[in-house]
Amino acid sequence: MAARAATFYAGISIVAAVVTIGLKVFAWKITGSVGLLSDAAESGVNLLAAIVALWALWRASQPADAIYSFGQTKAEYLSSGFEGLMILAAAIAIAVAAVERLKNLQPIENVGLGLGITALAAAVNGGVAMLLLVAGKRLRSMALRADAQHLLTDVWTSAGVLVGVLLVKLTGWLVLDPVVALLVAANIVWTGMRLLQETGHGLLDRAIADDEQAALAGLLERFHAQGVVIHGLRTRAAGPRCFVQMHVLVPGAWTVKRGHDICEEIERAVTEALPGSSVLTHLEPLEDPTSWDDRGLDRRV
Q1: Tens of pLDDT along 246-297?
Q2: Bridge-partner residues for 250, per DSSP?
Q3: Residue 76 CB: number of other CB atoms within 10 A?
Q4: CB atoms within 10 A of CB 268
Q5: Which residues make Cβ contacts (< 8 Å) with residue 1, sequence separation at least 6?
Q6: pLDDT in tens, 198-253
Q7: CA distance 227 to 101
Q8: Is 135 in contact with 144 (CB distance < 8 Å)?
Q9: Which residues of 90-101 are buried (b: 16+ CB within 10 A; e: fewer)?
Q10: d(Cα 104, Cα 171) in Å, to the nearest integer?
Q11: What is the torsional sign of CA 55, 59, 60, 61?
């Protein structure tokens, strides 16, 4: 159900990208503004990124099998990484167009109509971005969050372009148009680098978010009162899923069944606190010194 919902939101993003591209290209055609051209180019990247996000979400929704034993949820990071690279490519194209315009300044026409159309496109992007942000957080989808961040950047880009074109109209300084386009390109580079950094963290098996780790530690504390020690705690995020593993130390006099029951209780509690998580516990006797000798596992709760 979550996967189906995520692909639905990706479909909305694709429709929004097609609409905004049409609006922005028309605004550029009637005004001749390189700033508006840069805005339209970024929306083109939005469309391509949204299509890749749809593919990644479909791939991530596939169940685990003999080849992909842990599922394919990391496909979402491929989407965000691709989007980051495309954003950087768009920034380069925008900068090249702006430099060429600096060499050959041209007047802007039909400013009022062009600005109105661009404002409408920005409103569409803003609404879809907020929708994707909420859905991405609820569904724990990196692909949707990355797409939402890109759309929000597009909104700010449009706002900057609108201000630049308006200033050109009010002052007659044609140089402001390509200068704003260069500022837009710089802003896009920052967004692209941020997305690539977040993608890298995911591909390198970064631990779950700090607030989730704090909630997990608090949850496990209650088992200490039952004579249980938990250490060797490790977590990693993989798209919408997270993986948690830990060593559970119990008195050696306990029966296997009692130890197994406490492990089952811990696993249920963790999966309830972290929906979509996969939990692995390793049962060991408290009295055995080797139970405490977990080299490389220095996290303890």
Answers
A1: 999 999 899 999 999 999 999 999 998 888 788 999 999 988 887 777 644 5
A2: 285
A3: 29
A4: 11
A5: none
A6: 788 777 878 888 888 888 888 888 888 788 999 888 998 887 788 999 999 999 89
A7: 73
A8: yes
A9: bbebbbebbeeb
A10: 18
A11: positive
> Could you tell me if 53 and 79 are in contact, meaning their C-beta atoms sit under 8 angstroms apart?
yes
Q: What angle do CA 60, 130, 162 make, to 5 degrees?
A: 120
Residue that the structure tokens 């909630």 belong to: 215
CA–CA gap between residue 246 and residue 243 (Å, rounded):
10
Please provide the average confidence, as pLDDT, over all residues in the chain. 81
Q: Which among 195, 116, 153, 150 is positioned nearest to 13, based on CA atoms?
A: 150
pLDDT of residue 4: 66
Would you give the end-to-end CA distance of the chain in angstroms?
A: 34
Q: What are the tens digits of pLDDT across the range 124-181?
A: 988 998 998 888 878 777 778 878 877 887 787 777 777 777 787 788 787 877 787 7
Two structure tokens written together for 236? 């990693």
Q: What is the dihedral of CA 168, 170, 173, 177, to 10 degrees?
A: -10
Which pTM was predicted? 0.65
CA gap 93, 41 in Å, rounded = 8
Q: What are the DSSP calls for 118-130, one per residue?
A: HHHHHHHHHHHHH
Q: Which domains does the chain have, with CATH numbers?
A: 2-203 (1.20.1510.10), 210-292 (3.30.70.1350)
The structure tokens 């569409």 sit at 124
d(CA 48, CA 55): 11
Looking at residue 300, what DSSP letter applies?
B
